[in-house]
Amino acid sequence: MSTIQTSSYRRQRDHFEPQDNDPHEQRRLRGLMEQIDYTAFVSNREVIGHMLAQADTASFQKLAVLTATARAKWAAEALRLAESGSPVTPDQTARLTAQRTAYEELAEAYEALRRMVERGYLTMK
To answer: Would you place residue 59 in the very low, low, confident or very high pLDDT band (cuts 50, 70, 90)?
Structure first.
């Protein structure tokens, strides 16, 4: 099974690959899988398009700024801790972890929205 590396986690790719040597059966199965994939595409386009209908380039910009701000806060906190010269306390580590998690979640959401536009699930105004 292959994996896809994203910015913060691995996603398993588990698409079925037919093992049958009968070309007619393979063609039938591929056709069925294409139908399933198309159904997933239409479902994503309808659901995402409905739920995120208000998304526009301005909302992408706001999300990008929010993500950049979270990243900068995380990095600034890490530098502040390094400059102090003292060992990092559990509370400081927890705060740094929370800032990293916030940045990573926002970055993943931004990338997910980008993929939605790229795949045609979400149309921009």
So the answer is: very high
